[in-house]
Amino acid sequence: MDPHFDYLMDEILQNPKCCRHFLNMGQFLLSEGHFLESLGFLNKARKLGDDSFRLYFLLGKVYLFLSCSEKSLSHFKKALEKKPSHEETKYIINALDGERHVSARSLKTSVVKGLFDDYADKFENHLINKLNYKTPKKLVKFFLAQTEKKMALKIWEKETPLVLDLGCGTGLFARELKQKLNNSQIVGVDLSSQMLKQAIKKDVYFELYQEDLLKFLAQEKKKNNSYNLIAACDTIPYLGDLEEFFEKSCLILKPEGFLLFSFEALKDDRGEWFSFFNGRFKHSLSYVMSLAKKNNLRGEVKLETLREEKGERVKGCFFWGRSIKIKKTDNFF
Q1: In the chain, what are the domain boundaries?
Q2: 8 Å CB contact between 273 and 101
Q3: Which residues lie below 8 Å from residue 260, measured CB to CB, with a gap of 6+?
Q4: Tell me, what's the pLDDT at 3?
Q5: SS3 205
Q6: How many CB atoms lie within 10 A of CB 99?
Q7: Among 90, 155, 187, 239, which residue's CB has the most CB atoms within a 10 Å radius?
Q8: Is pLDDT above 80 for 169?
Q9: Is the pLDDT of residue 120 over 50?
Q10: So what CATH class is 121-323?
Q11: What class has domain 3-98?
Q12: Are the C-beta atoms of residues 160 and 181 closer than 8 Å to each other?
């Protein structure tokens, strides 16, 4: 048993009428992915008189994971009444009020930072063990297969490939890439300082930066820095409009450099991108392909299972694009 669980249980046994102890246990169980158990402790905290923002926010999250959208929305609204300026709560309510094409270009940076700062310690365990997450390994395999097919990896044998890992998180993608391309020099960028602390431990990065990825891309252009590969593993779902992402990424790709990313697939009849109840964006294949062509990228797309969520496979795509000058007569994809 987890020592922290034992500590929290001891507190409850010593003072079974203290709502704060039940609240702490509910939050711990939520972070471990034990949603029904978490719900029991949180409801007990409420019965004992807790009426805090924290309680309603945690209840909103639990019901969201349990696919009870209406109950989740109700509790997030109560949380917002307690703290009207809380950005993450406002965004979630906005998403839960109705799945729709949103006007926001991306998830707010303050919301993303808050989500992943809180999640960092449990991030890898939850993804790998709870969601059967293998996207980093699959994406690296896809990249190597496509790049070898085009005989492009030979270029990297003569120089140290420079790689930019956008939204690097705890370094899962970089670890997989480094195992296959040991001579690569990888720069990681992420909004969350706590995720970067986990990434440092893997000892695979040349440099790490805490920054918004679009701002970082613009800064690299001003510095005249360029990369052989720009990768974004499970980062695109936090962006809606991808115009700026494509444009700024391609401006700092070396000649015949590569853009590589995963994205959650949207049926083309629903538009270019769409925000769903979990706050993540899905993008249509035709939208991604049109932006690739617009920015002189030529390559491949592969349908893949990205992870499991609530017992179901989440389908998505891998995109591999090579920076070239496309002639009007060329066939694209």
Answers
A1: 3-98, 121-323
A2: yes
A3: 139, 142, 143, 229, 230, 231, 232, 318, 319, 320, 321
A4: 80
A5: coil
A6: 14
A7: 239
A8: yes
A9: no
A10: alpha beta
A11: mainly alpha
A12: no
